[in-house]
Design a protein that fits this description.
Length: about 475
Amino acid sequence: MALNSLSGRFLILTAVFVMFAEVMIFVPSVARFREDYLQLRLEKAQIASLALLANDMIDAGLERELLENAGVYNVVLRRDEARQLILSSEIPAPVSATYDLRDPAGLELIRDAMLRLLRSGNDVIRVIGDPVREAGQLIEVTMDSAPMRAEMVEYGARILALSAVISAVTALLLFLSVRGLIVRPIKRVVAAMTSYAEAPEDARRIIVPTAGVRELRDAEVALAELQTHLSGALRQKDRLAQLGGAVAKISHDLRNILTTAQLFGDRLERSEDPMVKRAAPKLVSSISRAVNLCESTLAFGKAEEPPPALDRLMLADLVADVVEAERLACGDHDVSFSEDVPATLSIRADPEQLYRVIGNLLRNARQAIIASGESGEIAVQAEETDRDWIVRIRDTGPGLPPKARDHLFQPFQGGTRKGGFGLGLAIAQELIRGHGGRLMLETTGPEGTTFTIHLPKVVVELDAAAE
């Protein structure tokens, strides 16, 4: 509906405010009209009394005509400290109210006027005022209130009709002004946003600021800058996506090639040639690193990790499986494992994804301890609060290097060990965020490193959790 639009509601508000202003004018105007009406009756009564003073003897018909012309029943004039009934006739009813106009207060005039408008009957009232040109101390008349009220109603109707016309014209002019100065530019911005959303890569759809109103022009300029940056980011994202696809293909083929080379490297290690014996371990190590890079790149290069399939699982069983696999990978190295997970602790998570996260953290800790050449311990501890399940992986390794701390969870930058690429932690963080949780570095230093996983007990929207 038009009334639900900005211009429609502005039209209604304008009409209401103008009418409110007119009502504020109407009340004192009616009160002023009533005062002028009564003053006019006093002046006419004074003129009629002057005619009698000029000629002491007038017949009853002329006296009645003077009173009818003044619109009063009688006239009392005080002159020379004497109160004198100048003109008189029969009063049909007792006097119901007396009004003194010699020094009236504004609020009193407004109150009396509004009460008279609300009272529809005909009363006899007494009015006292000052004579014109100081022709006495005071003049007093009695009169009917009905004719005065009728003229007040007619006058008020004219004011309200004029106010309605003024309100309609003012509201229409403001409506047209708002529609031209505000609504149309806003619609243009909305249309530009809609058009840009259809094809954000098309630079021709970026809005060109043309608004004359400064605030709207600032909004258009800000929108144009946002669209320009977004278009550039989308183009860069497309290029990165294409590059990522190419890298994934290369990594896949390269991994197959390197796997074959790894097999030959294993055979070279069994050679009796001293030169080959010295070079073979380095060659195998380099090939293994290359294979790991290819596999990590393929894992990270997936378009998107699937949403977690949340299910109830016993955390102690899952941790035991991960720890057993890492024990086997230690070989002859002096690395011990400890588990402090309540046997009855049941959590809600994706078993496969949580296995990958905990396995990645344990593997990083194991490799850091082995690389230090010292013995060490890796501990897995779990607990729950009213809101979260908390899993801590603590090791006694050498701690994270400064570069890893500065770029933690950033792919290809946050590697936690020499020769690492930082993809494992980036993938682990993404998986935990998909659960609506957090993966944090709690402490790190020469005494060891601690990572903490927080998994919320409340089920939330995955998109909101990722944000």
